[in-house]
Write the C-alpha coordinates for this entry.
Amino acid sequence: MEHKISVLISEEEVDAKIRQLGEQISKEYEGEAVHLVCILKGSVFITCELAKRITVPVTMDFMSISSYGDGTKSSGVVKLAKDLDETIEGKNVIVVEDIIDSGRTLSYLLPVLRERKPKSLKLLAFLDKPDRRVKEVPVDYTGFEIPDEFVVGYGLDYAQKYRNLPYVGIVEV
Ligand code: IMP
Ligand code: MG
Protein backbone atom coordinates (compact mmCIF):
# COMPACT_ATOMS: atom_id res chain seq x y z
CA MET A 1 0.00 0.00 0.00
CA GLU A 2 1.26 3.48 -0.85
CA HIS A 3 0.84 6.28 1.66
CA LYS A 4 0.29 9.95 1.10
CA ILE A 5 3.41 11.79 2.24
CA SER A 6 3.64 15.56 2.60
CA VAL A 7 7.00 17.34 2.72
CA LEU A 8 7.94 18.68 6.16
CA ILE A 9 11.65 19.44 5.57
CA SER A 10 12.84 19.77 1.98
CA GLU A 11 15.95 18.18 0.50
CA GLU A 12 17.57 21.64 0.28
CA GLU A 13 16.86 22.42 3.93
CA VAL A 14 18.27 19.05 5.01
CA ASP A 15 21.44 19.56 2.94
CA ALA A 16 21.99 23.07 4.33
CA LYS A 17 21.53 21.87 7.91
CA ILE A 18 23.97 18.98 7.53
CA ARG A 19 26.53 21.31 5.99
CA GLN A 20 26.10 23.70 8.94
CA LEU A 21 26.43 20.89 11.53
CA GLY A 22 29.53 19.62 9.73
CA GLU A 23 31.13 23.07 9.87
CA GLN A 24 30.26 23.47 13.55
CA ILE A 25 31.70 20.05 14.45
CA SER A 26 34.84 20.68 12.36
CA LYS A 27 35.44 23.92 14.30
CA GLU A 28 34.76 22.44 17.72
CA TYR A 29 37.06 19.44 17.16
CA GLU A 30 39.87 21.31 15.40
CA GLY A 31 43.18 19.48 15.97
CA GLU A 32 41.31 16.32 17.07
CA ALA A 33 39.61 13.36 15.39
CA VAL A 34 35.96 12.38 15.73
CA HIS A 35 34.44 8.91 15.89
CA LEU A 36 30.87 8.82 14.60
CA VAL A 37 28.68 6.12 16.11
CA CYS A 38 25.81 5.52 13.73
CA ILE A 39 22.64 4.00 15.17
CA LEU A 40 21.30 1.64 12.51
CA LYS A 41 19.36 1.72 10.39
CA GLY A 42 17.76 5.16 10.44
CA SER A 43 20.93 7.17 10.97
CA VAL A 44 22.87 5.78 8.01
CA PHE A 45 21.93 8.57 5.61
CA ILE A 46 22.59 11.42 8.04
CA THR A 47 25.86 9.85 9.28
CA CYS A 48 27.31 9.49 5.77
CA GLU A 49 26.27 12.97 4.65
CA LEU A 50 27.57 14.50 7.88
CA ALA A 51 30.90 12.65 7.62
CA LYS A 52 31.38 14.20 4.16
CA ARG A 53 31.03 17.69 5.67
CA ILE A 54 33.49 17.22 8.53
CA THR A 55 37.04 18.37 7.80
CA VAL A 56 38.85 16.85 10.82
CA PRO A 57 39.74 13.11 10.64
CA VAL A 58 36.62 10.93 10.89
CA THR A 59 36.15 7.26 11.74
CA MET A 60 32.79 5.52 11.85
CA ASP A 61 31.22 2.55 13.58
CA PHE A 62 27.71 1.13 13.67
CA MET A 63 25.39 -0.26 16.26
CA SER A 64 21.81 -1.36 16.21
CA ILE A 65 19.48 -0.66 19.08
CA SER A 66 15.76 -0.25 19.04
CA SER A 67 12.71 0.60 21.12
CA TYR A 68 10.34 0.24 18.20
CA GLY A 69 8.37 -2.52 16.52
CA ASP A 70 7.12 -2.30 12.98
CA GLY A 71 4.44 0.32 13.46
CA THR A 72 4.35 3.88 14.69
CA LYS A 73 3.99 3.16 18.43
CA SER A 74 6.90 2.69 20.84
CA SER A 75 7.02 -0.69 22.53
CA GLY A 76 9.01 0.80 25.41
CA VAL A 77 11.41 -2.14 25.18
CA VAL A 78 15.02 -1.26 24.32
CA LYS A 79 17.34 -3.93 22.98
CA LEU A 80 20.93 -4.00 21.74
CA ALA A 81 20.83 -5.95 18.49
CA LYS A 82 24.34 -5.28 17.16
CA ASP A 83 27.26 -3.90 19.14
CA LEU A 84 30.13 -1.75 17.85
CA ASP A 85 33.06 -3.47 16.11
CA GLU A 86 35.74 -1.25 17.66
CA THR A 87 36.57 0.16 21.07
CA ILE A 88 35.58 3.75 21.80
CA GLU A 89 38.05 4.16 24.66
CA GLY A 90 39.92 7.47 24.39
CA LYS A 91 37.95 8.60 21.33
CA ASN A 92 35.86 11.72 20.72
CA VAL A 93 32.55 9.97 20.16
CA ILE A 94 29.54 11.60 18.55
CA VAL A 95 26.48 9.38 18.61
CA VAL A 96 24.37 10.08 15.54
CA GLU A 97 20.66 9.34 15.97
CA ASP A 98 17.96 9.88 13.38
CA ILE A 99 15.27 11.02 15.79
CA ILE A 100 14.74 11.39 19.53
CA ASP A 101 11.16 10.64 20.43
CA SER A 102 10.45 9.29 23.94
CA GLY A 103 14.18 9.39 24.69
CA ARG A 104 14.13 5.78 25.92
CA THR A 105 16.65 4.47 23.37
CA LEU A 106 19.32 7.07 24.09
CA SER A 107 18.79 7.20 27.85
CA TYR A 108 19.60 3.48 27.78
CA LEU A 109 22.50 3.77 25.35
CA LEU A 110 24.47 6.80 26.57
CA PRO A 111 25.38 5.33 30.00
CA VAL A 112 26.41 2.06 28.28
CA LEU A 113 28.80 4.01 26.03
CA ARG A 114 30.05 6.27 28.83
CA GLU A 115 31.17 3.18 30.77
CA ARG A 116 33.53 2.35 27.89
CA LYS A 117 35.58 5.48 28.71
CA PRO A 118 35.50 7.59 25.53
CA LYS A 119 37.56 10.79 25.69
CA SER A 120 34.32 12.70 25.09
CA LEU A 121 30.75 11.70 24.30
CA LYS A 122 28.24 13.86 22.48
CA LEU A 123 24.86 13.26 20.91
CA LEU A 124 23.63 14.51 17.57
CA ALA A 125 19.93 14.18 16.80
CA PHE A 126 18.91 14.85 13.22
CA LEU A 127 15.31 15.28 14.36
CA ASP A 128 13.91 15.97 17.81
CA LYS A 129 10.29 15.65 18.98
CA PRO A 130 10.58 17.41 22.38
CA ASP A 131 6.83 17.13 23.08
CA ARG A 132 7.11 13.35 23.21
CA ARG A 133 9.93 13.10 25.74
CA VAL A 134 9.47 10.57 28.55
CA LYS A 135 13.16 10.27 29.51
CA GLU A 136 15.50 13.26 29.65
CA VAL A 137 18.32 13.10 27.07
CA PRO A 138 21.11 15.68 26.66
CA VAL A 139 21.24 16.58 22.95
CA ASP A 140 24.41 18.43 21.89
CA TYR A 141 23.62 18.96 18.21
CA THR A 142 20.08 19.15 16.84
CA GLY A 143 19.12 19.22 13.18
CA PHE A 144 15.45 20.14 13.43
CA GLU A 145 12.85 20.23 16.19
CA ILE A 146 9.63 18.85 14.78
CA PRO A 147 6.03 18.58 16.01
CA ASP A 148 4.51 15.32 17.26
CA GLU A 149 3.94 13.78 13.84
CA PHE A 150 5.14 10.46 12.43
CA VAL A 151 7.79 11.26 9.84
CA VAL A 152 9.64 9.27 7.18
CA GLY A 153 12.50 9.81 4.77
CA TYR A 154 16.20 10.56 5.05
CA GLY A 155 16.66 7.24 6.83
CA LEU A 156 13.40 7.18 8.78
CA ASP A 157 10.98 4.41 7.99
CA TYR A 158 7.39 3.38 8.26
CA ALA A 159 7.45 -0.44 8.49
CA GLN A 160 10.90 -0.34 6.78
CA LYS A 161 9.65 1.73 3.84
CA TYR A 162 10.48 5.27 2.67
CA ARG A 163 14.00 5.43 4.18
CA ASN A 164 15.31 6.43 0.75
CA LEU A 165 13.25 9.62 0.37
CA PRO A 166 15.69 12.56 0.04
CA TYR A 167 13.46 14.78 2.25
CA VAL A 168 11.55 14.41 5.54
CA GLY A 169 7.82 13.92 5.12
CA ILE A 170 4.75 13.34 7.24
CA VAL A 171 3.02 10.07 6.49
CA GLU A 172 -0.77 10.12 6.60
CA VAL A 173 -1.91 6.88 8.25
P1 IMP B 1 12.80 6.79 21.36
O1 IMP B 1 13.53 5.71 22.11
O2 IMP B 1 11.33 6.82 21.71
O3 IMP B 1 13.43 8.15 21.49
O4 IMP B 1 12.73 6.34 19.86
C1 IMP B 1 13.67 6.60 18.95
C2 IMP B 1 13.46 5.72 17.75
O5 IMP B 1 12.08 5.59 17.42
C3 IMP B 1 14.09 6.32 16.53
O6 IMP B 1 15.44 5.93 16.41
C4 IMP B 1 13.23 5.81 15.41
O7 IMP B 1 13.71 4.55 14.97
C5 IMP B 1 11.87 5.63 16.02
N1 IMP B 1 10.96 6.77 15.70
C6 IMP B 1 10.47 7.68 16.56
N2 IMP B 1 9.69 8.57 15.94
C7 IMP B 1 9.69 8.22 14.64
C8 IMP B 1 9.08 8.80 13.45
O8 IMP B 1 8.36 9.82 13.47
N3 IMP B 1 9.33 8.15 12.28
C9 IMP B 1 10.11 7.05 12.19
N4 IMP B 1 10.71 6.50 13.26
C10 IMP B 1 10.50 7.08 14.47
MG1 MG C 1 16.25 4.51 15.19
Helices lie at 11-28, 44-52, 104-114.
